[in-house]
Amino acid sequence: QLVESGGGLVQPGGSLRLSCAASGFTSFSTCMGWFRQAPGKEREGIAFLHPGGGLTHYAGSVTGRFTISQDNAKNTLYLQMNSLSPEDTAMYYCATRTFSSLCPTAASANYWGQGTQVTGS
After folding, report:
1. What are phi and psi of 27, to 5 degrees?
2. How far apart are CA 84 and CA 76, in angstroms?
3. Longest CA–CA separation in the chain, Å
4. Residue 58: per-residue pLDDT
5. Does the structure show a pLDDT above 80 at 57?
6. What is the pLDDT of residues 4-16, one digit of tens each?
7. Over the Cα atoms of the chain, what is R_g?
8. C-alpha–C-alpha distance, residues 98 and 12, integer Å
9. 115 vs 117: CA distance, rounded Å
């Protein structure tokens, strides 16, 4: 199970930190990802953390502004979001693809959280 929290309303240029608490599996043993879906748009992957926590990659739209990280002791994934703009308004989800060394895509992820709403005013 994945449970996100930390969304909200934020002023342009502001910051938020999203959390994703994992239970039922160890999140640091699979590639974890953050996705977002804006109204009328497809769900897109924006940040990924490979097993072991060392390798990350980001979508171009968030590179330099968002940072994915993980607290293994808490089995929790984070997304630090800085310099937010109205274009970042979306529902944000964490997801993973268990029993695979590959990072999840929107089609291949088999564990999803319920999502947390981020709104840039």
Report:
1. -65, -25
2. 22
3. 39
4. 97
5. yes
6. 999 999 999 999 9
7. 13
8. 36
9. 7
